[in-house]
Amino acid sequence: MSRAYSLARPLLFRLAPEKAHRLSIQALKNGLVPRIDVPIDSRLRVSVAGIAFPNPLGLAAGYDKDAEVPDAVLRLGFGFAEVGTLTPQPQRGNPIPRVFRLPEEGALINRLGFNNEGHADAYERLDARRRKPGIVGVNIGANKDSADRVADYVAGISRFEPVASYLTVNISSPNTPGLRKLQSGEDLDRLLDAVMAARNGYAAMTATPRKPVFVKVAPDLERDDIASIAHAVSDHGVDGLIVSNTTIRREGLRTDLPHRDEAGGLSGRPLFRRSTYVLAAFRRALGPDFALIGVGGIDNAARAIEKIEAGADLLQMYTGLVYGGWTLPTRILADISQHMDLNGIRHVSEMRCRRTDAILSAGPG
C-alpha cells in the first residue's frame, strides 16, 4: 500500500462504503488521482479473443458502473477496464445500506442489485471516447422487473457493440432474484442463441469484425453445472468465460465478524480459493484454447500468478483496490515481472496452466 493511501484509508473507511466509492469516482473524474507510470514489459502482452492486451490485469465490472471514468482507470496501469453492469432502463438497485466492509478478511459483501443509469447515458460517454486508445469492455445485465430478460441482454449487445472492445453477459449476480437460473439448461441455451445471433447479425449488417462476447459465471457451481456451461458456451461459439462473480457462501469466515451474515455476494480474499478452483475446473472442461478470465480475491502478485497457473489468460480485480489503493495494479505487475526474472520465464503465457491439476486436487477450500 502506498504511503498516501495508508494515510487516506482510515478517513475513507469512516465513510459509508458507497459514499467512499462515489468520492473515488469523483477524484478520478476530476483528475485528482495522478497518472501512474507503468514500466512497459513486453513479456506481459497477451492476445485473447483477437484483442491485444498490453498486460493481463484488468479492472472488473462493478466499480465504474456507468462508464464515467474508464480512461482514468486505464491510467492506473490496468491493461483493460470493464464498465457496468448496465441494464436497458435506469435502476436504483436494492435499499441502502447494501455494501459492507469486512476489513479483517480483506472482503466486501454487496447486494447492490445492478444499480445504474441505464444504457442511454453510458452509451453517450462511450461513444464520446470511441477513438481513444485503451481496451474497454461493457458488462450487460437485465432489469429486475423485466418481462423478458433475454431481450434485455440482446438490447445490451445491440446498443454497445459499436463502442465496446468486448461484451460481457453477466448472468451470475446473486442480487437480482432468479438471474442465476440463466446459467443452466434451456434458459442458458435460449440466452446464448439470442445474444450470439445479435452479435453476429450486427457484424454482418455493418461489415465490421465481430466483437468478442464473454459470459460471467458464479463461483457457486457444482461439477455438473460446470460441465453443462462448458458444453453450452462451446456449442454457441462464446469467446470466453469470466470466472467468477461474488459468492453467496460464507464458509471459512470468522463467525464473530460484523456484517458476516448480511445478504449479498461476498468478494475479496475469502473468494480466492473457491473462484480459483472453479477457474481450474473450467480450464480442464474447456481445454487449452478457450479464453478464461480469472477474478476473485486478487490482492497481490502471488494470487495473480496462481490464477494464471490455474488456467487464466487474463485477470480482473476490484475489491483488492479498496484495501490496497490505486498503486496496487502497478505493484502487482512489477512483482509478476520480478517473479519472471527470478524464474527465467520468458513470457507470462508460460505460467498458464502450470498448476491446474494441483489446484483441482487440492479442492475448493
Report on the architecture of this protein:
The chain is an alpha/beta fold. The chain has a single domain, classed as Aldolase class I (TIM Barrel, Alpha-Beta Barrel), CATH 3.20.20.70. The protein is 38% helix and 15% strand. It contains twelve helices and 13 strands. Helix 5 packs parallel to helix 6.
Helices and strands in order:
Layout: H1 3-12, H2 17-29, E1 46-48, E2 51-53, E3 57-59, H3 70-74, E4 80-86, E5 99-102, E6 107-110, H4 119-128, E7 136-140, H5 149-160, E8 166-170, H6 185-206, E9 213-217, H7 223-235, E10 240-243, E11 265-268, H8 272-286, E12 291-295, H9 301-310, E13 314-317, H10 319-324, H11 328-343, H12 356-362
Helix pairs in contact: 5-6, 6-7, 7-8, 8-9, 8-12, 9-11
Task: Describe the structure concisely for a colleague.
This protein has 365 residues and is α/β, with parallel strands linked by helices. The protein is built from twelve helices and 13 strands.
Structural class label: alpha/beta
Q: Main beta sheet, described?
A: 8 strands, parallel, barrel
Secondary-structure arrangement, i.e. CATH architecture: Alpha-Beta Barrel
Q: Number of domains in the coordinates?
A: 1
Report the CATH superfamily.
Aldolase class I
CATH topology: TIM Barrel
Mean pLDDT figure: 95
Strand content of the residues, in percent? 15-25%
Shape, per Cα inertia axes: globular
- Biggest sheet strand line-up: 3-4-7-8-9-10-12-13
Identify low-pLDDT runs: none
Give the total of beta strands.
Answer: 13
Distance between the termini: 27 Å
